[in-house]
Design brief:
4-stranded mixed sheet; 10 strands; alpha+beta
């Protein structure tokens, strides 16, 4: 069966001594979501990723945030990446590539990706304030890396210019959502795997 023959939706759980993560992801949705990671700013970012990517998304995570947010943020990235990888299926008929720019006030962000099966992350957000609310801004890169590796995508995220750390990270999540939305869309002109090699 091809991606056009099935509902690209997946439910997945992962439990370790540090976190318990549950995700329900639908690639062909409307952006409805329910997010609870116990980290307010991170909840907000995942809500934006869902809304702008038109990805239906439920995320529930209980983690050792009394230590810090690292395990929660990274493990959500891992499970979200795993869910994306399973939901995308055989990749037949998808656009595969996408690049999207998002302006947010003084900030301009770019996300460029390839659903390639070759995980890689380039992350360049410039200087960031140490914290946004209870969110350690170093964890943004950790989330994106975990997601890219487990989703099997090549992902380039860059802030072209900007000053406000909230704006920078928010613009990156929005740009990623839009890029994912376009990359996973089916194009009826694409016959089979979108690669000259015939495999991804």
């Amino acid at each position: 069966m091809t991606g056009s023959d099935i509902m690209r939706q997946i439910e997945i759980k992962r439990q370790t001594n540090e976190t318990a993560v549950y995700i329900n992801l639908g690639l062909d949705g409307t952006g409805k979501n329910k997010i609870d990671t116990k980290i307010g700013f991170f909840n907000h970012m995942l809500t934006l990723l869902s809304a702008h990517g038109l990805i239906d998304l439920v995320v529930e995570c209980t983690g050792d945030i009394e230590v810090d947010g690292h395990h929660t943020v990274e493990d959500v990235g891992i499970v979200l990446g795993d869910a994306f990888h399973e939901a995308i299926g055989d990749k037949k008929g998808i656009n595969r590539y996408a690049t999207f720019y998002v302006p947010m006030d003084e900030t301009l962000a770019r996300a460029s990706l390839d659903i390639s099966g070759r995980p890689f992350l380039i992350f360049d957000a410039g200087e960031l304030a140490p914290m946004i609310g209870a969110f350690d801004t170093q964890l943004a890169e950790e989330f994106f890396r975990a997601f890219a590796v487990h989703a099997g995508i090549t992902l380039h995220l860059q802030i072209l210019y900007g000053k406000n750390s909230h704006h920078k990270i928010e613009a990156l999540f929005k740009a990623l959502g839009h890029a994912l939305r376009h990359a996973v869309e089916m194009d009826p002109r694409v016959k089979g795997i979108p690669s000259s090699k015939g495999v991804l």
